[in-house]
Design a protein that fits this description.
The complex is a heterodimer of chains A (about 250) and B (about 210). Helices cover about 60% and strands about 5% of the residues of chain A. Chain A is mainly alpha-helical. In chain A, strands 1-2 form a two-stranded antiparallel sheet. The N terminus of chain A is likely disordered. Classes of the chains: A mainly alpha (about 250), B alpha+beta (about 210).
Chain lengths: ~250, ~210
């Protein structure tokens, strides 16, 4: 798995920190059309129904449950990232919310003031191991990813302890819960997602630029941390996408 | 003056600020930020921070004014002109085509773009009713200032919002906004670029259509 990721990152040119590295655009656009169709026909209607039928406290329960069941996977990734503090926080939170929080329906840990357990994934683990971002890809059903995050998506099947300890059919519970989490998120962020998919001139390009900026920010990546100046930043009048967080439009 | 611009007036982050914010702040310290003293001499941390505080207060007043939507759009457009460096934002958004259009077209594009922005983002205002935005930190970066804030939106969660402020356009103005790392200029640049492509590169048509879009 790691070898694949390294190869993936190695065989593609290191992306310009400012723009999208998208050599697969032709295929990606087809997958985008497919994903958009699935959203229109299935995900969006289900999410809107979910949001209409369930009151907010119930939706909070769904979200808490879906998030809680992912905590063992977060903890494994934190351990792989050599961040024992975060791993321990995550485990404690899981233990507390699974017991006092009745199987994770209630986020007791947050109310008790425990440190926030942030989501992480094997894509972030790879990033911390120094693997490059790789080309931009749209993954069927899952949407925009960096090549690195797409590899992480597959690897996270195996970083989830539930995968190893549960037998079928219980082993499907975490996946089912994640599916519910997706529906909840599709409802909660419906304005932003609708805006990207249905109210933009080119939903593919918009999804790509929004995802890449957000993901790099999440990882605190080279972009967020190295603070390129105007010289290292994209020349905004030369057709490059300006995603350098410290882009300076006056420097021209 | 140069040293004055470097003094930080950082307020404490809220204790439950997300890891992202913390990492960003910690990361920026660790990398020693390529501060270029001397270049941001005229503007101070406090001025940049005050500008954003006032901007946020004005936007909040519009959101909670209870006015009809069209009135909110025009109020918001005025706020954009007052606090934002629209000519600079418009130029950076349009990119390459900006070079080949004349001054009159540039002015027209800037005006249409302001109408477009105020409608597009003004339509989301109902979603932000009751939201709290708190300025948490201001620091000089390169030749401008970055004001960090946390937006607490009921029913959605907390967002990291950063504002870039400069006085190089003649007065102290905001020129870019980042929400969870997603910035206005880059995002709108992709959008406006796609709209221009759809119109065969005809900037005049884009200028006309922008007034009705968004």
């Amino acid at each position: 798995m790691v070898a694949v990721a390294v190869m993936l990152a190695g065989c593609s040119p290191r992306p310009h920190p400012a723009g999208a590295n998208d050599p697969l655009e032709g295929v990606n656009r087809k997958v985008h059309a497919l994903n958009k169709g699935i959203d229109t026909a299935l995900v969006r209607p289900v999410a809107m129904g979910y949001g209409t039928v369930l009151p907010e406290p119930a939706r909070d329960g769904v979200r808490n449950f879906a998030l809680n069941i992912s905590h063992p996977r977060f903890a494994v990734n934190y351990a792989l990232q050599a961040r024992p503090d975060k791993a321990m926080d995550t485990i404690w939170r899981f233990v507390l919310n699974s017991t006092l929080g009745i199987g994770g329906l209630f986020d007791v840990a947050s109310r008790l003031g425990m440190p926030a357990a942030d989501e992480t994934d094997f894509g972030e683990t790879l990033y911390r191991w120094g693997v490059g971002e790789g080309p931009y890809v749209e993954v069927p059903l899952f949407g925009p990813r960096t090549g690195r995050a797409a590899v992480g998506l597959v690897a996270d099947v195996f970083t989830d302890p539930f995968f190893w300890v549960l037998n079928s059919p219980e082993s499907y519970a975490p996946t089912g819960a994640r599916g519910l989490g997706v529906i909840d998120a599709r409802y909660r962020f419906r304005n932003i997602i609708d805006d990207v998919l249905y109210n933009s001139a080119d939903s593919y390009a918009r999804a790509r630029i929004v995802y890449l900026q957000q993901r790099r920010f999440e990882l605190g990546g080279p972009q967020s941390q190295s603070y390129l100046g105007p010289d290292g930043s994209p020349e905004d009048q030369n057709g490059n996408e300006v995603t350098d967080p410290l882009f300076d439009p006056y420097a021209e | 003056m140069a040293t004055k611009s470097q003094t930080r007036s950082s307020t404490r982050m809220p204790s439950d600020a997300s890891r992202r914010n913390f990492l960003l702040l910690a990361g920026s310290g660790a990398f020693g930020l390529a501060l270029r003293p001397g270049r941001a001499a005229a503007l101070t941390n406090d001025e940049a921070s005050r500008l954003i505080t006032r901007l946020v207060a004005d936007v909040n007043a519009i959101i909670n004014s209870g006015k009809p939507q069209t009135a909110m759009f025009s109020d918001f457009e005025q706020v954009l002109w007052r606090y934002g460096d629209l000519p600079i934002i418009a130029r950076a958004t349009l990119g390459v085509p900006w070079r080949s259009i004349n001054d009159q077209q540039r002015r027209a594009f800037t005006q249409s773009y302001a109408v477009y922005l105020s409608r597009k983002y003004g339509r989301r205002f109902s979603q932000f009713r009751g939201a709290q935005i708190q300025v948490t930190d201001t620091r000089p970066v390169n030749s401008f200032f970055e004001v960090s804030s946390i937006a607490d939106v009921p029913g959605e969660g907390r967002y990291n919002v950063r504002w870039h402020v400069s006085d190089r356009g003649g007065s102290t103005k905001m020129f870019n906004i980042f929400v969870e790392g997603v910035n206005l200029i880059a995002t709108e640049r992709a959008e406006i670029g796609a709209m221009l492509d759809q119109r065969g590169g005809d900037v005049d048509r884009l200028i006309r259509d922008l007034r009705g879009a968004g």
